[in-house]
């Protein structure tokens, strides 16, 4: 009886251990599978985070590059406009100085005579600044006496600071030799040239930086 009891107890123990080992293996296997799934999910999330971070970094780099490029363009444009403004002011000043009373005493009679070679040119009017008219009126009257007798008018115009305008009295045809208009002609030529020079300078700087 004792032998049978011992064998029964032994069998129960063996069956229990085998069952426990089987359960343990199942638990370990399930745990490993779960661990693999968790690790895979974590890796996928990490890859996604890295990809998003790279995309955001690239976007920020592109945005920064665009901002720097735009700032550079703005700087060049501002600098160019500043140069054009200074040059225009210089041209205006120099043109006005060049068209002083001594120059006008020589230029106006020559222009009037050239204008009146056209037989259809009648009723001519010369306009100049009131300041210049006061300074050279007697000289002009003397040198253009014959033309004045034929209807030539020489008048002051408050809208002219320097230089002169010549044309028909009705305004149907005229030439503008005022300092402002002459300076504008020079500036219109100069500004595109300045822009071209600035572009060349910017290209040259960019080329040196890449070398």
- Can you tell me the overall shape? rod-shaped
Distance between the termini: 102 Å
Structural class: alpha+beta
C-alpha Rg (nearest Å): 48 Å
Q: Give the neighbour order of strands across the main sheet.
A: 2-1-3-4
- What is the percentage of strand-forming residues? 5-15%
H and E order: HHEHHEEEH
Question: Can you describe what's shown?
Answer:
The structure is a single chain. The protein is α+β, with helices and mostly antiparallel strands. Helices cover 77% and strands 9% of the residues. The chain has helices at residues 2-98, 101-115, 130-143, 145-148, 179-210, and strands at 124-128, 153-156, 163-168, 174-178. The protein has a four-stranded mixed sheet. Helix 1 (2-98) runs antiparallel to helix 5 and helix 2 (101-115) packs across helix 3 (130-143). The longest helix is centred in the first third of the chain and has 97 residues, at 2-98. The chain is rod-shaped, with a radius of gyration of 48 Å. It starts with a helix and ends with a helix.
What does the secondary structure layout of this molecule look like, with pairings?
Blueprint: H1 2-98, H2 101-115, E1 124-128, H3 130-143, H4 145-148, E2 153-156, E3 163-168, E4 174-178, H5 179-210
Parallel strand pairs: 1-2
Antiparallel strand pairs: 1-3, 3-4
Helix pairs in contact: 1-5, 2-3
């Amino acid at each position: 009886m004792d032998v049978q009891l011992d064998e029964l107890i032994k069998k129960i123990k063996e069956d229990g251990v085998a069952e426990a080992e089987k359960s343990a293996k199942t638990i370990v296997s399930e745990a490993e599978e779960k661990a693999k799934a968790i690790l895979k999910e974590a890796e996928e999330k990490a890859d996604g985070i890295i990809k998003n971070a790279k995309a955001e970094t690239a976007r920020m780099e592109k945005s920064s590059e665009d901002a720097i490029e735009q700032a550079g363009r703005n700087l060049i444009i501002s600098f160019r406009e500043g140069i054009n403004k200074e040059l225009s002011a210089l041209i205006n000043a120099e043109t006005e100085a060049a068209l002083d009373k001594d120059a006008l005493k020589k230029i106006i009679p020559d222009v009037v005579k050239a204008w009146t070679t056209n037989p259809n040119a009648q009723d001519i009017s010369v306009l100049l600044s009131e300041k210049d008219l006061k300074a050279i009126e007697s000289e002009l009257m003397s040198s253009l006496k014959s033309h004045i007798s034929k209807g030539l008018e020489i008048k002051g115009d408050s809208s002219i600071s320097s230089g002169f305008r010549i044309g028909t009295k009705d305004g149907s045809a005229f030439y503008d030799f005022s300092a402002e208009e002459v300076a504008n002609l020079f500036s219109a030529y100069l500004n595109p040239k300045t822009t071209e020079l600035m572009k060349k300078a910017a290209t040259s700087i960019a080329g040196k930086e890449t070398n």
